[in-house]
Structure formats: structure tokens, C-alpha cells
Write a structure and sequence with these properties.
Layout: H1 4-7, E1 15-20, H2 26-35, E2 45-49, H3 54-59, E3 64-66, H4 75-90, E4 96-101, E5 105-106, H5 108-115, E6 125-127, E7 135-139, E8 142-149, E9 158-161, H6 162-172, H7 176-184, H8 188-199, E10 204-206, E11 230-231, E12 234-236, E13 239-241, H9 258-266
Parallel strand pairs: 1-2, 1-4, 2-3, 6-10
Antiparallel strand pairs: 4-9, 5-11, 6-9, 7-8, 12-13
Helix pairs in contact: 4-6, 4-7, 7-8
The structure holds uridine-5'-diphosphate and manganese (II) ion (MN).
The site of uridine-5'-diphosphate has 14 residues, from helix 4.
């Protein structure tokens, strides 16, 4: 770990913020992102989708990337998008690859501050598992043995340093990521964990300020919201799992609470 003093700088432009999305979410999930946290990182945030959308491409200043991946929640489509995200990052000169889902709120200043604690020249896999123990699967290279590894939940967001991405490239770049996903037959975030923890023997560093909607979102005390890196939301029936933030903005106008959160964290 570098102290902030030694690393010297906290630079947003070193970070590639990559958001996985799909056509049916452009008008719903992307719209609220564009009105909130995207404004804090418009140059460094890219959206990976499956259909051309001139309006959103314009609103993001050309940062809506249409992949050739299909619009489905199936493993192969999701691995296809992750593969495109990873290859696009590799082609940049940025120092951190951070993946998010389109139902994540990214508290950009908190992300920048947190990453400044680590050197991108060392292999870092930063994120948060959603399981209490490592995943155990049959070894795809030897079905008579089992392997276990941790993976960071994609829906909470995770970050990979440039040094680690370079090590991953032989297993994950130029379509190899999809082959890996097919080999273990598990989702994209699990495939990332398999490559990093199992194939490269580099451990996940748990950052507990990343949050997916698998966690209850309403438990953060108001004072601690600014210390978190990501938030999310979900709905099951009429129950909304959303951040509890004191705001004059009515829930009916801001069902995800992302606008209330944005105003609470940054002022409006
Ligand atoms: N997604 C996608 N294609 C689909 C469905 C979902 O790329 O057909 C993306 C979606 O935009 C989001 C992520 O996959 O970034 C997770 O989807 P969602 O939040 O709907 O489901 P979850 O897995 O969280 O239950
Ligand atoms: Mn989700």
C-alpha cells in the first residue's frame, strides 16, 4: 500500500469506468446515471450495450459502445460484454479498469480516493464477494478434483489494476474471455475471479464499501453515505431496496433514490 503522500496524486483520468447495459435499460437505468454520477466522470465513463442508440450516444458524448453481443441475460451475452469492456480498457493507457452494472451509483470522489491507496503497477483485484465462503467448483482441467476461489460480485462493481490486466490478457483478451466463460460455464464476474484467483494466484482484496443490491441498501447511516464507493437498487414486488437518504426529492419522482443521493453527496 502506498500512502497518499507517496502516490502523490488522485487522478480520475487514470480510471476507466465501464458500465454494462442493454438496450431496454437505456431509457430507464442509463437516464438516471446520466443525470447524476456520470456528470462527475463524463470523459472516463463508457457504456457497453447491444443496440445502436444515437440519442444516448450523443448524450454520452460518443461513449455508448455498441458491442456485437446479443441482448440477453444469458452467460454468453454477459461474458461477451465483459470481454468487450476488458479489450477496450486494454487499448487505453488508463491505469484502472473498474466495471459496474447499470443499476450502480458510483460515488466518483470516493472511488478516486480509494484507488489512490494502491499502485496500479502492482496486481490488484478490488471488490466485494457476495458469498460467505469461496466458490467451490470441479476443476475444468481435471474433473476429479475441486478448486475454490473468491470472486467480486459484478453488481457491486470491482476494479483491476493495469498490472493485473496485463497479466490477465493471455487468458482474457481478444475473445479468450468468452472461451474461459464457456469452459467454466459460469457468469462473467465468476470468470474474472477464476482467471485472477485460480489461474494467476492473485487474491481478491475485499473493499467493503462496494455494494450490490444483494445487500439491504437502507441500512447506511446518513453520515456514512459519503464513505461508500457504490450503491445499487432493486425491486421485489412492491418492496424497493433503495438507499435511505433524507431528501426533499419525493420517492415517486426519484424511485431509485439516485438523484437524492447525488444531491446529498455533492449538493444540487
Ligand atoms: N444485462 C445485459 N443484458 C441483459 C440483461 C442484463 O447486459 O439481457 C446487464 C444489465 O444491464 C446490468 C447487468 O446485466 O448491467 C445485471 O442485470 P440486472 O441488474 O437486470 O440483473 P441482476 O443480475 O442484477 O439480477
Ligand atoms: Mn442488478
Amino acid at each position: 500500500l502506498l500512502s497518499n503522500h507517496v502516490s502523490g496524486k488522485k487522478r480520475l483520468k487514470d480510471i476507466f469506468l465501464s458500465v454494462k447495459t442493454t438496450q431496454s435499460n437505456h431509457r430507464t437505468r442509463l437516464a438516471i446515471i446520466l443525470k447524476t454520477w456520470f456528470k462527475q466522470a463524463p470523459e472516463d465513463t463508457y457504456f457497453f450495450t447491444d443496440q445502436k442508440d444515437d440519442e444516448f450516444n450523443r448524450l454520452t458524448n460518443g461513449h455508448l459502445i455498441k458491442t456485437n453481443c446479443s441482448a440477453s441475460h444469458h452467460r454468453t451475452a454477459l461474458c461477451c460484454k465483459m470481454s468487450a469492456e476488458f479489450d477496450t480498457f486494454l487499448a487505453t493507457s488508463k491505469k484502472w479498469f473498474c466495471h459496474f452494472d447499470d443499476d450502480n451509483y458510483v460515488h466518483v470522489p470516493s472511488l478516486v480516493k480509494h484507488l489512490s491507496r494502491y499502485s496500479p503497477n502492482k496486481p490488484w483485484y478490488l471488490g466485494k464477494p457476495s458469498t460467505l465462503s469461496p466458490l467451490v467448483i470441479l476443476n475444468p482441467d481435471d474433473q476429479s478434483s475441486k478448486i475454490s476461489f473468491w470472486f467480486a460480485t459484478g453488481g457491486a462493481g470491482f476494479c483491476i489494476s493495469r498490472a493485473l490486466a496485463n497479466k490477465m490478457a493471455p487468458f482474457a483478451s481478444k475473445g479468450k474471455f468468452m472461451q474461459m466463460g464457456e469452459k467454466i460455464r459460469l457468469p462473467d464476474d465468476v470468470t474474472i475471479g477464476y482467471i485472477i484467483e485460480h489461474l494467476l494466484s492473485i487474491n481478491l482484496t475485499v473493499v467493503d464499501t462496494f455494494h450490490s443490491h444483494l445487500e439491504p441498501m437502507n441500512l447506511f447511516p446518513s453520515k456514512t453515505l459519503k464513505d461508500q464507493i457504490t450503491f445499487s437498487y432493486s425491486r421485489s414486488g412492491t418492496e424497493m431496496n433503495v438507499v435511505n437518504v433524507n431528501s426533499t426529492i419525493d420517492s415517486s419522482k426519484d424511485p431509485t433514490r439516485f438523484m437524492a443521493l447525488y444531491c446529498h453527496l455533492n449538493g444540487c
